[in-house]
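Hey all, sorry for the wall of text incoming. These are the two entities for the joint prediction.
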Amino acid sequence: MSAEFLYGVEVIINGLMAGVLYALVALGFVLIFKASGIFNYAQGVMALFAALTLVGIMEGQVPFSHIINATFGTDVHNFGWTVPALLAIALTLVVMIIFAWMVHTFVFKHLVGQEPIILFMATIGLAYFLEGIGDLMWGSDIKTLDIGIPQGGSMWVENLSKHLGGEDFYGFFIDKLDIVATIVAIVLVAGLIVFAQYTKQGRAMRAVADDHQAALSVGISLNFIWVLVWSLAGMVALVAGVMWGAKSGVQFSLSLIALKALPVLMLGGFTSIPGAIVGGLIIGVGEKLFEYMIGPMVGGATENWFAYVLALLFLVFRPQGLFGERIIERV
Amino acid sequence: MKMNTFAMAALAGVMASGPALAELVIPDLSYRTGPYAANGTPFSDGYQDYLSLLNARDGGIGGEPIRVAECETAYNTEKGVECYESTKGDNALVYQPLSTGITYQLIPKATADMIPMHTLGYGRTSAAAGETFPWVFNYPATYWDAASVAVNYLLSENGDDLSGKTIALIYHNSAYGKEPIRTLEKLSEKHGFKLTQLPVDPPGQEQKSQWLQIRRERPDYVIMWGWGVQNQVAIQEAANVGYPMDQFIGNWWAGAEPDVLPAGMAADGYKALNMNRIQDYPVLDEIQAQVIDAGNGAGDGSNIGQVLYIRGMYAAMLTAESIAKAQELAGTSAVNAAQVRDGMEALEITNARMAELGMEGIGPEFSVSCQNHSGSGEGLVQQWNATDKVWVPLTDFITPDKSVIDPLIAEDAAAYAAENGITPGCL
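and here's what came out:
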């Protein structure tokens, strides 16, 4: 096989891997939108906040130390201990559950029945608030996230595939981090499906997503379900934050990964978990292939805009996205 | 009665908050929040702490106290322009926008308002032509100088011959990142190397395509024009695809601690340009003792000695020296913005003066003139030692190829002058 063809295959494989990372971000949006009709603009910032909290806990950082020191003239930054990764992840999940409860209790509980645009605007405010609180709690410096996820090209894959092409082919490059992200995404989606299908709370969540008035009439607590959904979105945000943060360090630009999820949502639909996954994969492969084949002819850097062009093309034919609920309006 | 009380209170407030007549107001368009906070914070800390040291140690500059007017831009061009508009009426003496995007927007505004702007090693390169851009200064060096310094370094590494070599430029797809392209194209014609361009859309979280291309094409060297998260991701991706770190050279905005620390040991050997040498200067001890320990630091002091902190301090030193020069020329300590511009244009930085200031060898010797607002253009190459977590200088200051750069500057400045109806000349 020609090296050119094999490199094309490599681009597709890496596009699929990148798509998984986009889908991880998109999943959080889908969970909240499906259950409550809220487009959560703060999902990217939630990923940042979760990753900041994880690193802060692992390193034993004193939250709000800058304010404490400025107010009381102290010089405390660290508790002097470190926390193992698994325990830190568990504690971060607790923080995200508390966050979910606070968001519901102090914000959305008071906005029940409001127009979707009002709820959307509330999430914009929430994003700015959360970014500010994250900065105050953990500082704005870049933090190294080391929870033992391997990184770098898989030599096993590279050596195994080297002989497929000629001298000009160096073997397939697949990042070990991307492989881990794919496995985690599969486990996460499987877990969410099992939870939604086979648990009482999961079925209640689906009932609320289908018709919250009907769900309310049979005794399902909307308050509990919304806290549950925001908690799940917080968990997904943590996973996305960890995967993206492992690449670049945990820093405030992580909040911008939400921009990568938007075309995925447009394509896959705002209400479908499989849609988020398939949408992510299509966007990942599409943008990487376009950059590989057409990019050099138009000066490169096509990925950001091409993802949106691809999503718009799908929208022309399926406005609800690939897996979204069909829009039926009776007049 | 109520209205009278309110009006009096408002009047008292206005009087109390108005600037003291002889204050030297220096705005700091900082970014401590947002995606680029990790880079903006240490620079701003260094900039402000040096000015605070002058206040604490010398009572300001020429006996006039300095007041820093900080305004948060979040590295956002619109916010940067808002900051400029909101601070310029405060008798602002000189602006340091720390953003090429903001600089481009402010060039016509600052020129119209007759307030000088110092864009230390960033911004519009052709602003070096002082006759066309009388209110903009980019000393001690420009982006085009940086591109030439990088190529001159590679020439020295290859026996003065780069013919047949391939150099890939991976750059921030913005006004900033595109700045060196023209110079590198000219230099590739001159030295016979092949230039490959790889733009990365900001912020640069995802660069898989670019690094797969580098892995396929295996260029001899990769030069990076990055900022913020682009740098961290690029260094990690370079390590992932096994690109040799000692063949990967960042410009001076891609060579600070936040750029390399997230990659850990994988970043070992990464090289970057610098316009200011990193070492333990005596002035840092003074800042620690008289500013940080006294509780007047702009930050918590944890950034002291880092690349961007020292660069911020260096920028502040150049500003302070310009103001001192302006005071000398004007014969008064209470200088205005126009007089500071004159001081900037007459600035001369010598080794003796840098030593006297407790920062011997921090930058090259240079002087500014009406024709040359960019200084000597020299830069050095440093390498990251991941074990000790320090930048090690590999070279002394390298002189750029002015025979290539100067005609480009003249051409670009002439085009700008023609577009804007400017008749070049000295003020």
